[in-house]
Fold 14199_t:CDS:1.
Amino acid sequence: MINYNLYDIIQNQPLTDDYDRYIVNEGNGIDSLDVISRRLNHHARSIIKFKAVFEGILISPKVLPELVNLRELELSVINLSQRYEEQLKLSTFSNLQVLNIRNISVKTMANIIEKTNGHVRKIWVDDYKLCNDSERLIRAIYKNCSYIEELSIALYNHNFMEFEKLLQRCGHLKTLYIKVLSTKENESEDRMILSEILKEYAPACLNNIT
């Protein structure tokens, strides 16, 4: 991935309807960050692809609910601020097809997915902050993303019944990454149960499981 100087992006690349990348290096000036927020606010409803790679607070979190026509959202942010999570919970991305976030809570992900309109093809989260309501997230996926093809999911507190329903209702799954959060005492049993569920309910097109 090429790292562009943020100021050069803003100065030399006009923001178009298909604009999809902000890549931030350390050392960018405050003036440049102000430019980002102003331009994003101005073009928010025209953006259909948005990718941001940064740490801390880069853009005003309040711009996120304005990105109402997004089809692809990728946030690669170490320790995503609670201020961004709160605005993501308020956001509605009805046309969303790709959702890729590095670090986020299960509750926020469920909020986002519950307000999509069945277009989502990919949900990928590198790491979940909190997994205390993963059952709700799994339910949100199989109720709202029946055509999903790529998925990463965390299973917590033995919520295998909901996972069975996901496999049965999401018949287009091709790639699946599963993280099972178990105690040492239950780890072997949980993996055995998961293996049996996958053997019985995995869609025929699911050929990549990790």
Remarks:
- Residues 26 and 54 are 9 Å apart (CA to CA).
- The domain at 6-209 is CATH 3.80.10 (Leucine-rich repeat, LRR (right-handed beta-alpha superhelix)).
- The helical segments are 6-12, 30-43, 82-90, 106-114, 134-144, 160-169, 187-201.
